[in-house]
Amino acid sequence: MTALTLRPMTDDELAKYVEQQESGYARQMVEFGGFKEEDAFAKARADMERLWPGRQPGEGQQLFMAEIDGEVVGHLWLAEESAGRVGQAWIYDIEVETRHRGHGYGRDLMLAACEEARRLGCTRIGLNVFGGNDVAIRLYQSLGFRTTQMQMSKSLP
After folding, report:
1. Count of domains in the chain?
2. Within-domain flag for 152
């Protein structure tokens, strides 16, 4: 099997990604975070504008396509954190395309993210994962990620 490789997103890929990222982030907040739809979309817009001023990646933002034998199998949004976390990289988004899941590419992509963070001089890497995303949680735990914060909620009938 050929190794997974990362390459920077092209301008066209970046434009498409920005469009999809905001709506996908909002949908996850609704599905996993219990947000009302209008609140989720407002938060997604505000967060993206903070991180992507003018719809362009801010300083320290790294965007990659993940490929196997030249075929795109996923993507990675990695950032060097500056908000009091010296030496830490942050995974804002990591995803294997649906049709490529179940082949170990998620693990390979996470390992590539860790390697890229090391290349940037980072000594730690972090991410957020919504509760209910059990497949991702198990993957991250198997790679040595540990819970550092936790939010919980309960529906009240």
Report:
1. 1
2. no
Per the model's pLDDT, the better-predicted residue between 116 and 1 turns out to be: 116
Check which CATH number belongs to the domain holding 39 and give it.
Answer: 3.40.630.30
Which residues are bridge partners to 125 per DSSP?
Answer: 89
How far apart, in Å, are the Cα atoms of 36 and each of 42, 60, 148? 10, 31, 26
CA distances (Å), 75 to each of 4, 62, 108, in order? 11, 11, 12
Q: Per-residue pLDDT tens for 139-155?
A: 999 999 999 988 877 87
* Opening angle at CA 127, ends 3 and 16, nearest 5: 65
- Kindly report the pTM of this predicted structure: 0.84
111 to each of 55, 128, 155, how far by Cα in Å?
28, 16, 36
Q: Which residues pair with 56 in a beta bridge?
A: none
User: Do the Cβ atoms of 72 and 66 come closer than 8 Å?
Assistant: yes
**What is the structure's pLDDT at 82?**
59
